[in-house]
Specification:
Blueprint (H helix, E strand, L loop, with lengths): L12 H19 L13 H11 E2 L2 E2 H11 L20 E2 L4 E2 L2 H8 L8
Antiparallel strand pairs: 1-2, 3-4
Length: about 120
């Protein structure tokens, strides 16, 4: 059907197209927004939706309030001053226990006065 000759180095143009397409798909998958699901991923959908509904207070979830507070106060993604540097690149990883902390739990623990609710 298509007769595409290899280029001067013997590499088929189809091979190049396939490799580039695979790279594009990998980039899309890597940067696609991820849903914040429970750790077990076995929780039925109706239970997860009920849990999310309980988080909503006055029409705006606490997570949305925290994100707005971060943007309004020009903080980094963890609610700390924008120029804060972390060992290992993130404050969410505890090297002693080898466990990750939820971003919002980290922010709530570091800001017990809940400034996003003011």
């Amino acid at each position: 059907m298509f007769n595409i000759a290899p280029n001067q180095k013997g590499v088929s143009y189809w091979a190049i197209i396939i490799v580039l397409a695979a790279m594009v798909v990998a980039m899309i998958v890597a940067f696609w927004p991820q849903e914040d699901l429970p750790e077990d991923n076995l929780t039925p959908m109706h239970i997860r939706l009920l849990h999310q509904a309980k988080e909503v207070v006055g029409g705006i979830s606490e997570k949305a309030k925290i994100e707005k507070w971060i943007v309004d106060n020009k903080l980094n993604q963890y609610g700390d001053p924008a120029d804060t540097l972390y060992a290992g690149g993130t404050p969410l990883y505890d090297e002693t226990t080898r466990e990750m902390t939820n971003k919002y739990d980290y922010i709530k623990n570091n800001h017990p006065n809940n400034p996003w609710n003011k």
